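To illustrate this point, what follows is a protein record of this kind.

___
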Amino acid sequence: MTEQITTVSAYAAPAPDAPLERTTIPRRAVGEFDVLIDIKYAGICHSDIHQARDGWGEGIFPMVPGHEIAGIVAEVGPGVTKFSVGDRVGVGCMVDSCRRCENCAAGLEQYCTGGGNVGTYNALDKNGEPTYGGYSTHIVVDEAFTLRIPDGLALDVAAPLLCAGITVYSPLAHWKAGPGTKVAVVGLGGLGHMAVKIAHAMGAEVTVLSQSLRKKDDGLRLGAEHYYATSDDATFEALAGRFDLILSTVSAPLPLDKYLGLLRTDGAFVNVGAPEEPVSLSLFSVIAGRKTLAGSGIGGIRETQEMLDFCAEHGLGSEIELIRADQINEAYERVLASDVRYRFVIDAATI
């Protein structure tokens, strides 16, 4: 890294449940294959809140969250071949992996079995140093874990795609959402609204399952053909055996047996939301109908680039509310209250 940038401004949680505050953090020097990114925008993901408040345990503090990063290349190492200064780039949920295991070789770095992937924040890098995320002005990332943001996507609406976009794109692609398939999306939040957009663009018939009909107009505008309230028991009767794929984007525990009843034979219920508490299940709910209860993480680097290109081709950016860095703590509370449509994005110029 150039001499004048050895520390950068950031917002960090100094301890579990403590409000985030402005601070400075170190960034490593630009290595042979590294890219220095001038961060322009960083999305706020619900998992940022889980981790900043140590809801999943094993938090490393002080913690700088943020794994939905969009910016401009400011410097490249001498061995970098993929990027040049001035390129529009993004960074998602991981910044490294073992790169040698079977999954890494297959482009599934998110499922690295050689020690696990290295998270963009709240992780230790290969040198044992903590990683710090995108609520900062700059970040240094290996080119192998840096994504190109197509010109057709504005950087602010592209930032949330680096987590919210790929988190839903990967299972939709894996379970072959497309023409002739019926897909239900549980929850119309930061993840859910992108799932609706992407599934619709893939050609699927999309239904939103939400607690209430409060966001029905939005759901239909974003590409859903149908919208039902899950607080109404009649919904589960009316939709029994309807769907090929149900994608749950919520982080609250659900009555899985009820939702599995909405699947067709050989249908799949896929979780991308991650509740902090365990859920219960009767195995008869999957035995009857040869149904699948599954989970999905993010996507590998190759698939994430595929997702960005797909979104650019179809004009799919996230629906965002742009905020200043000094509004992060307020934004966290609003996320928990489901008071955002549909993703907060931090203007890094205000950090």
About this structure: The CA atoms of residues 97 and 117 lie 4 Å apart. Residues 301-314 form the longest helix (14 residues). The radius of gyration is 20 Å. The chain has a mean pLDDT of 96.
